[in-house]
Amino acid sequence: MAVTILNSLWSRPSTFFRILVLIWCLKWNGFFFCSCRLLDCPLRQRRKYIHDLFHEKPGYFELAQQLNIEACEASPDNSSTLARMDTFFRNACQSSCEGIMLKTLDVDAGYSASKRCDSWLKVKRDYVQGLGDSLDLVPIGAWYGNGRKAGWYSPFLMACYNPETEEFQSVCRVMSGFSDEFYKEMKEFYSGERILPKKPVYYKTDEQPELWFTAEQIWEIRGADLTLSPVHHAAIGLVHPSRGISVRMPRYIRSVPDRSPEDCGTAADIASMFKAQTRKMDVSSEGQE
């Protein structure tokens, strides 16, 4: 995949893309130093080689920001360490990063390409309760699952409500955060008369799920951030003239009981959240045709 991307960028006439490719190649060649393979070296040593070999030039070549927590400081009772980590994480989010990576420096700290392991952990803003806003959305459709999810519904098509037009406008597909038991419950719940023969005129989306549902439940959904979408119709016309708003990397949190579907998040709510989010999007040029 990386080679394909590099070849694609290199074939472009723009000098800008050639510079990007050059920097990327230099960065990854740092795993070999004086003909020595560094992949099995601990992160602390590999990082030292990178810092010794390259000199930063702001705006041209910059190394990722980092915060070192030594073993003697790594305690859940160490308020100073917790404060430093919290500040670092929040600064990353405010700089339009999705989150941070936690990695061991010395123990089991070799680099395993394309593998998940116990020596590193992703922490994104949507993983942290109370840091990011969530949306109350209504499932209006679904696709049939594949592989392990065969026989269940996955993903689900989620929508907000626009009281001005009395429409349910699609926001995203969601397929994360569900338990096997939940899948079974939803397969039983969305059956019979709750499966519609065709898309209602008040469902607004360019998605084409295999099944359309009656609007009945409300689910709390949390994602990385909000972005413009040519497919989803949430808040269309409120932020961009022809594009709606969607949620990146959405995840199911919980079902919201004792509320009617029209009491879910509104198009205006989503437009306000989009405008207020830290990760800004350029709406002046995106999607103009």
UniProtKB/TrEMBL annotation:
Gene3D superfamilies: 3.30.1490.70, DNA ligase/mRNA capping enzyme (3.30.470.30), Nucleic acid-binding proteins (2.40.50.140)
PROSITE patterns: DNA_LIGASE_A3 (PS50160)
One Pfam assignment: DNA_ligase_A_M
Keyword Ligase included in the entry's annotation: yes
Keyword annotations: Ligase
CDD domains per UniProt: OBF_DNA_ligase_I
InterPro entries: ATP-dep_DNA_ligase, DNA_ligase_ATP-dep_C, DNA_ligase_ATP-dep_cent, NA-bd_OB-fold
Keyword hit for Glycosyltransferase: no
GO molecular function annotation: ATP binding; DNA ligase (ATP) activity
The ATP-dependent DNA ligase family profile domain, residue ranges: 31-162
A Gene Ontology BP annotation from the UniProt entry: DNA recombination
Family: Belongs to the ATP-dependent DNA ligase family.
The protein's name in its UniProt record: ATP-dependent DNA ligase family profile domain-containing protein
Originating species: Zea mays (Maize)
